[in-house]
Write a structure and sequence with these properties.
There is one protein chain. The chain is α+β, with helices and mostly antiparallel strands. About 35% of the residues lie in helices and about 25% in strands. The two termini are about 35 Å apart.
Length: about 650
C-alpha cells in the first residue's frame, strides 16, 4: 500500500512568514512568532544553532554556560525516573554502561543484520533475532527503538534552545549524512516529531557545511567542493557541485563504522597488547568504558602535545601506567586515515573527477582536529583544507542558515518548490509508510522494496495516501490499485519495488514491479481537487499534537506484526522438523508461543517484545542444530526438508 502529497497548496512559505510582533527576551530584538533552529544530530555529539535576528549570523546555542556540545548519550536511572541526556548521562558510561546508550545514530533505520559484527562493540544490549526487523535496544525490562532514543536527544536540544532564547521552538531543520537512505531519513524525521518538532527539512550534512562556509549564498557561485566529514562514529566524503544556487551531490562515499571511536579502539588495543592489561579491560563493560575514555583523552591530548601518560585501575584496584607518543599514535591511526582516502578516491571516481578538479576542501567533524588527518587530506587534494570554522559546530551552523532561508529571511537565495505533505502507502497493520517526505524538492522520485506476508500470495493491493500521521486512517486516501499476477511463492520471497514519480505539475505516478517475474502495474494520480492552506496547516498541526500517541501506536502495531510473523514461522518450523526435535523442546516452545499470544491480546508493547525475545532465545539453539542437520543431508545428496 502507498501514500501521496499533491502540490495544490504549492508551498509552506506563507506559514513560515505569518508574523506576530514579539520581543525576544534573550536578544532584545523584534522577531517572528517562532524561531526555526538548525540541529546537527550527531553520532557522538549533537548541537542546536540559530541565526541571530539582528546580526544575521548563525550561532551555536550555549545554554547557561553548559556548552554548545551535547553528548549524544542517554542514561536510564535504575529507579525508573526520567532519562538523563548529554553530559549528565555521559558520566554513567563508566559506572552503569548497560543502562547508558551512545552512538544511537548508527542504529537509525537499521535492521539486526545490518549491524553484523559491530553489535558486539556496543556496551549495551542490542536485541538480535536474526531478522530484517529494525533494531531494538533492551534496558532492563523495557525495549527502546533508536527513534525513541534519538527523540530524547532532540528533546534535550529543543529544551536548551527554548531556555536560552526565551521563545518556543517547534520547527527545525535536521541534518543527516549524505549517504543516509530513505529509511534512515524517515527515522530521523520520526524522531523529530516525537520530540515535538515539526521537521521542515532533512538536509545533507555536507550541504549544511558548505552553507556555513558561505558557499552557495551567492547565486553566482560556480564551484565543485569536497566535504571531508570525520566524526566520532562515521566518515563520509561528499563531492558537491554548486550551480546557480543549487547544490548537487555528485557522489558520496564513506563508512558508518569509521571515525574517532575507531582511533580510540586502536589505542586501547595497543595498550592491552603492549602493557599486558588483563582481559577484563576488554570484557567487563565498566573497565571497557574506562579504557575507551582514557584512549579518547590520549587522542585529544596528542593533537597538541608529543607524549601522553595516564593510569588505569582494574577491578582489583591494581594500577597500570600506560603511555603513548604522537609518533606511535600516528602509526596506529595511519590505516584508518588511509581508509578515508580510499573513500575519497572512490567518490572522485564516481563523480568522474580528479583532485585537481576540486575548488575547495572543507573539514567537518571533531576528528579532523587530528594533525595527521589534516596533513594527509591536504596532500591528497593538493591544497590546504579549510578548517577555519569549529568542526564540531559547522554542520549545525549550516542547518541554521537553511532554517533561516526557509523562514523567508534570505530573499537572495532561491528555494525550489516542495511537496506540502508526505506521500506514502499503507503497510501491514494500517500503518503509513512514507515514500516522499513532505518538503521534498520537486520534481522527484523515490521508492522502497516490499515483499509478501502470506505464502502463495498472488495479489497485492497498494493504497496511496497523503498526510503526516502514522496511521492511514488519519490521512487522506488518494487512490489504490492491485498488482496481480505475482508468482505464488513462500512469504518473504517475492521482491516488489514500489516507486513514486512526482513531476513538476504535481502529478504522481505510482509503479509496482515484482522483480523476479517482471509483473508490473502503474497508475497516475492527479490532484483533481486540492487542499486549502488551512487544511494543510491543520494536517500538520494534528501530526504534531498527536505525535506521541501516533508513534506509540506505530510501535505497538509494528511489535504485533513482528510477533505474528514470528509465531507463523515458529509453527511452520515445528511442523516441518518435528522428527529432529525432543519432546521437551516442542512442549516448551508451545508454552512460549502461548505466552506470546496472550501478550498479543493486550496493548503492552514491552511485554510483547519480551515474549518474542524469550521465544527467540529458547528456540535458537535447536534451530541451529536442525539447520546443521539439513546442511549435512544436502551435502550427502539428500533433499533438505
Amino acid at each position: 500500500m502507498l501514500f501521496f502529497s499533491c502540490l495544490a497548496a504549492a508551498s509552506l512559505l506563507p506559514y513560515l512568514q505569518m508574523a506576530k510582533v514579539a520581543i525576544n527576551l534573550a536578544t532584545g530584538a523584534i522577531q517572528q512568532e517562532e524561531l526555526i533552529v538548525g540541529i546537527d544530530l550527531g553520532t557522538t555529539n549533537s548541537l542546536v544553532a540559530y541565526v541571530h535576528p539582528e546580526t544575521r549570523q548563525p550561532a551555536a546555542i550555549n545554554d547557561l554556560g553548559r556548552g554548545a556540545i551535547v553528548p549524544s548519550v542517554v542514561h536510564f536511572p535504575p529507579d525508573g525516573s526520567s532519562p538523563l541526556v548529554g553530559n549528565e548521562a555521559k558520566d554513567f558510561l563508566l559506572s552503569d554502561p548497560a543502562n547508558t546508550i551512545y552512538s544511537v545514530k548508527r542504529l537509525l533505520g537499521k535492521s539486526y543484520r545490518d549491524l553484523g559484527q559491530h553489535a558486539g562493540q556496543l556496551g549495551y544490549k542490542v536485541i538480535d533475532d536474526d531478522s530484517e526487523g529494525l533494531v531494538k535496544i533492551r534496558v532492563g525490562e523495557r525495549f527502546y527503538s533508536p527513534i525513541e532514543l534519538s527523540a530524547d536527544i532532540l528533546r534535550e536540544l529543543r529544551h536548551r534552545a527554548e531556555h536560552a532564547l526565551k521563545t518556543p521552538v517547534r520547527r527545525a531543520v535536521i541534518t543527516v549524512p549524505a549517504y543516509f537512505n530513505d529509511s534512515q531519513r524517515q527515522a530521523t524525521r520520526d524522531a523529530g516529531r516525537l520530540a515535538g518538532l515539526e521537521v521542515l527539512r532533512i538536509v545533507n550534512e555536507p550541504t549544511a557545511a558548505a552553507l556555513a562556509y558561505g558557499i552557495g549564498l551567492d547565486p553566482s557561485d560556480e564551484k565543485t567542493v569536497a566535504v571531508y566529514d570525520l566524526g566520532g562514529g562515521t566518515f563520509d566524503i561528499s563531492i558537491l557541485r554548486l550551480h546557480q544556487g543549487i547544490f548537487e551531490v555528485m557522489s558520496t562515499h564513506g563508512d558508518t563504522w569509521l571515525g574517532g571511536d575507531d582511533m580510540d579502539r586502536a589505542i586501547g588495543e595497543h595498550w592491552q597488547s603492549i602493557f599486558n592489561l588483563p582481559n577484563t579491560f576488554g570484557q567487563v563493560p565498566a573497565l571497557q568504558q574506562q579504557l575507551r575514555l582514557a584512549a579518547e583523552m590520549a587522542k585529544r591530548y596528542l593533537s597538541q602535545h608529543d607524549d601522553f601518560t595516564t593510569q588505569l585501575l582494574d577491578g582489583d584496584e591494581h594500577v597500570y601506567v600506560v603511555t603513548l607518543t604522537k609518533a606511535e599514535f600516528n602509526a596506529l591511526i595511519a590505516p584508518l586515515v588511509e581508509r578515508t582516502l580510499a573513500a575519497c578516491r572512490q567518490a572522485l571516481g564516481d563523480a568522474k573527477l580528479t583532485p585537481a578538479s576540486i575548488d575547495a576542501v572543507l573539514l567537518v567533524g571533531g576528528s579532523t582536529r587530528v594533525p595527521l588527518v589534516q596533513q594527509e587530506v591536504a596532500k591528497f587534494f593538493g591544497q590546504p583544507a579549510n578548517n577555519s570554522l569549529n568542526p564540531d559546530e559547522v554542520v549545525a551552523l549550516g542547518a541554521a542558515i537553511q532554517a533561516d532561508i526557509l523562514a523567508g529571511n534570505r530573499r537572495d537565495v532561491l528555494l525550489l518548490d516542495v511537496t506540502p505533505l508526505t506521500l506514502g502507502i499503507e503497510t501491514l497493520g494500517g500503518l503509513m509508510d512514507a515514500i516522499i517526505p513532505r518538503n521534498s524538492k520537486i520534481p522527484t522520485k523515490a521508492g522502497r522494496q516490499y515483499t509478501t506476508s502470506i505464502d502463495g500470495q498472488v495479489n497485492l493491493k497498494i493504497g496511496v495516501y497523503q498526510g503526516e500521521r502514522d496511521l492511514v486512517s488519519e490521512n487522506r486516501k488518494l487512490g489504490e490499485f492491485v498488482l496481480s499476477g505475482i508468482p505464488a511463492m513462500p512469504a518473504g520471497l517475492p521482491k516488489i519495488d514500489v516507486n513514486f514519480f512526482l513531476n513538476a505539475d504535481g502529478i504522481l505516478r505510482v509503479e509496482a514491479v515484482e522483480l523476479r517475474s517482471g509483473t508490473r502495474q502503474q497508475v497516475d494520480i492527479k490532484p483533481q481537487y486540492g487542499l486549502t492552506d488551512e487544511q494543510v496547516e491543520q494536517m500538520l498541526m494534528d501530526s504534531l499534537t498527536n505525535a506521541k500517541q501516533d508513534v506509540a501506536a506505530r510501535l505497538l502495531i509494528e511489535a504485533r506484526t513482528a510477533a505474528e510473523q514470528l509465531l507463523y514461522q515458529v509453527e511452520r518450523f515445528l511442523k516441518k522438523n518435528a522428527e529432529h526435535l525432543e519432546a521437551v523442546e516442542i512442549t516448551t516452545t508451545t508454552a512460549h508461543t502461548d505466552l506470546l499470544r496472550q501478550a498479543l491480546a493486550g496493548n503492552d508493547r514491552d511485554l510483547i517484545l519480551r515474549r518474542m525475545d524469550e521465544l527467540d532465545e529458547f528456540t535458537r539453539p535447536f534451530a541451529e542444530r536442525v539447520m546443521n542437520i539439513s546442511i549435512k543431508q544436502a551435502m550427502s545428496g539428500k533433499q533438505i526438508g
